[in-house]
Amino acid sequence: MKALIILISFILEGVFSNYVQTSSYFIPLFTLTALVIIYPLFTEIKDYYKYAFLTGLAYDLIYTDTIVFHAIIFCFMAYIISRFNLVLTDNFINILIIVGLSIAIYRIITYLILILVSRLSFSFINLIFSILKSLILNLIYSLILFLIVKKSQKKYKYKF
Predict the structure, then answer these.
(1) Each residue's pLDDT tens digit, 36-74
(2) Band (114; pLDDT cuts 50, 70, 90)
(3) Taking a C-beta distance cutoff of 8 angstroms, is the pair 47, 69 a contact?
(4) Separation of alpha carbons 22 and 25, rounded Å
């Protein structure tokens, strides 16, 4: 179930980004959203980090020209997500909060790294707009994905 959710989110992110311009108000980060949603389905935290690393590595190989960049960032985001889940319970509102905070942290980290390697001219307004554009679509996606996982959780006896 976990691998299927990651795979579907991964493919949907690629398909959606092909049909939506980068200047639109909808910037997908479905893979990161899926990492937030599937966290409660893991019993071992090491397995969760492995999923995050492999997902980031696949993200690097298929969507970007970097190697291990997103793998490391996704592992760091998995650590952040696991820390948030220690503080917050697994209900719908808290999942939305974790998704929102994860997207903001992901955008800030990637902007800071790209600034350090001088590949991006930094504008604080652009950073804020990219976070807000990412939030709109991904919160909707997290709602849909949360309801699907919750429904399948009852059917297949997953803990959520």
Answers:
(1) 999 988 989 999 999 999 999 999 999 887 888 999 999
(2) confident
(3) no
(4) 8
Q: How many angstroms separate the CA atoms of 149 and 152, rounded? A: 5
**In 10 A of CB 64, how many CB atoms?**
10
Q: Where are the domains of the chain?
A: 2-156
The residue among 35 and 65 whose pLDDT is bigger is 35
Question: Which residue type, as a one-letter code, is found at position 57?
Answer: L
Residue with tokens 């709602």: 143
- State the Cα angle at 67 between 44 and 2, rounded to 5°: 30
- Widest distance between CA atoms in the chain: 50
Is residue 93 scored above 80 in pLDDT?
yes
Mapping DSSP onto H, E and C, the string for the chain reads CHHHHHHHHHHHHHHHHHHCCCCCCCCCCHHHHHHHHHHHHCCCHHHHHHHHHHHHHHHHHHHCCCCCHHHHHHHHHHHHHHHHHHHCCCCHHHHHHHHHHHHHHHHHHHHHHHHHCCCCCCCHHHHHHHHHHHHHHHHHHHHHHHHHHHHHHHHHCCCC
Distance between CA atoms of 54 and 74, rounded to whole angstroms? Answer: 9
